[in-house]
Design goal:
Blueprint (H helix, E strand, L loop, with lengths): L3 H10 L3 H16 L23 E2 L13 H28 L7 H27 L9 E2 L4 H5 L4 H29 L3 H31 L4 H12 L10 H6 L4 H4 L5
Length: 264
């Protein structure tokens, strides 16, 4: 590995999800052990590498999914979550490399390397569970809208932080507890345990996003709440949907006066 930036770019360009997972773990270990320098700025790809399957559809063309007692419904739910986590791997490593010329503190890269490694672990856990259920990532179609958040915010780290951890990942805090409860209700404690692990880690991811969004906004002489709301209006293609998991958002340092005034 030449540098953290080059390693992050290699993860993005990897087409095989298993390679993204193994590389994420190796890069995180090397960075934490002091074996990688940050490196010089490099050109980042417009899109990450992807396997031939799943077939990618427009978000509006995706069939609706919900938890149910049948194995088919559980596979559909887990497959959709695997696709989210695969994109989350790339989003984390992209923020590491794309904005590495901004002279940000080492702690910024420490946090997002941790996020990248945890997103890779999440994908791997879901993939293993799919295999137990007789399925694999790629068996079902998935939508191609998640990477749009990276494209729309590639010009500004503050916009990226506003949308990815503080809108998209924060939304996961709102909806995941219901999915966990539903899986327990139908007796799938193994899948529920995986979602619980993801939920617990995502609180930390949102916390990292909130911490660095506020720090960078203040460093630029901007008021964080107003700036976040402005960036969400400019770069988020959708509405902030209620109900919110206020307890988890508070734990992650995302105060209600950020999101409630512009919800729905």
């Amino acid at each position: 590995m030449e540098s953290l930036k080059h390693a992050a770019r290699e993860i993005l360009l990897a087409a095989d999800p298993a390679d993204k997972v193994s590389l994420s773990a190796a890069v995180a270990t090397a960075w934490r052990g002091g074996g990688l320098a940050l490196g010089d700025p490099i050109e980042m790809p417009e899109r990450p590498g992807r396997p031939e399957r799943p077939v990618l559809l427009r978000p509006g063309d995706m069939p609706r999914r919900k938890v149910g007692g049948s194995q088919q419904k559980r596979v559909a739910l887990l497959h959709a979550l695997a696709h989210i986590e695969l994109n989350a791997i790339d989003l984390a490593w992209d923020i590491v490399a794309r904005f590495a010329g901004l002279e940000l503190p080492r702690g910024f890269y420490d946090d997002w390397v941790t996020v990248g490694a945890e997103e890779a672990l999440h994908f791997d856990l879901i993939s293993q569970r799919l295999a137990v259920l007789g399925a694999a990532y790629g068996d079902l179609p998935a939508h191609d809208g998640l990477w749009r958040a990276a494209s729309d915010t590639a010009h500004d780290v503050l916009a990226r932080l506003a949308i990815v951890p503080l809108v998209l990942e924060a939304r996961g805090l709102d909806v995941t507890p219901t999915m966990i409860a539903d899986l327990h209700r139908i007796g799938d404690t193994e899948s529920a345990a995986i979602l619980q692990r993801i939920y617990d880690d995502e609180i930390g991811h949102v916390a990292s996003g909130s911490r660095w969004f506020n720090a960078i906004a203040v460093a630029r002489g901007l008021e964080p709440t107003e700036t976040w709301q402005k960036l969400v209006r400019e770069h988020f293609r959708g509405n902030l949907k209620k109900p919110f998991n206020h307890a988890a958002r508070d734990q992650a340092g995302l105060p209600v006066d950020f999101y409630e005034p512009i919800a729905d």
